[in-house]
Amino acid sequence: MKIVHVKFLVAFLVVTFVKTTAFSQSHKDQTTFTLNSGTSIISGLLKSLSAADSSFLDTDTLLGRTSISNFSSSSRPQIILGIDHGLSDRWSLGAIFYTGSWKGNMNYSYTDNNNVTKTGSIDYHFNRYAFALTPKIHYGKNDKVDLYSGLRVGYVLWTTNINTDHPNLKGFNGIGLNRPLLGLTAFGARFYPIENLGVNFEFNTGAPNIIGYGINYRIN
Questions:
Q1: Rounded CA gap, 118 and 67, in Å?
Q2: What's the CA gap between 14 and 152, in Å, rounded?
Q3: Which of 7, 34, 62, 205 is the most buried (most CB within 10 A)?
Q4: Mind listing the pLDDT tens digit for each residue in 124-165?
Q5: Residue-by-residue DSSP string for 98-131
Q6: What does the DSSP assignment read for 146-162?
């Protein structure tokens, strides 16, 4: 487990202990549905990979003179569907389903071992999905504001489609790996200006998003 995840997990356990005497804002048997979007680091990662000309194309069999140009990328909104069910006045257990997509293209050029300059293009389309259980602890003193922290434990799945005639492309090696998901919702808040309909905000670590925001509906 990465050190940063360990630190946030410890912080979560400390918050859990400190809040055990606080007034909780969850209710037993209350169910909350959420629809969220948010920001992910994948778009920035794709851009940074394409900027690393010498490492994006495998130079083991080339002369090392490589170039990436005309990089473009787009993504559809990151969508997270969630449900939480109150186990007690403090704890809830929920689940989320996530989907996100990125696609783009770029041009490349390199000089081969025969000192011949070759050019081409790279087109890519990535889809990412995630499923996770989301245990949460709730705290606060206002019925119109639900404050919470929690964990995300699940799995991340990818589908990848890369089209290129480059013989030694390696720049996407770190993207598209299916893996277990362990993340932390360091802090979240749900606001209810209307009786049971509200908006929410989250700060998370790890997949599938860092900043989350959306709407929520609770059934008492």
A1: 11
A2: 17
A3: 34
A4: 888 999 999 999 999 877 788 999 999 999 999 999 888 877
A5: EEEEEEEEEEEEEE-TTS-EEEEEEEEEEEEEEE
A6: EEEEEEEEEEEEEEEEE
Name the nearest CA neighbour of 114 among 63, 167, 151: 63
Rounded Cα distance, 151 and 10, in Å: 12
CB 79 within 8 A of CB 209: no
Closest CA to 182 of 208, 153, 205, 217: 153
From CA 74, how far away is CA 69, in angstroms rounded?
A: 16
Cα–Cα distance measured from residue 220 to residue 206, given in angstroms and rounded to the nearest whole number = 31
Q: What is the pLDDT of residue 134?
A: 96
Specify the pTM.
Answer: 0.75
Q: How far is CA 220 from CA 125, 143, 200, in A?
A: 42, 12, 18
Residue 13 — pLDDT band, cuts 50, 70, 90?
Answer: very low
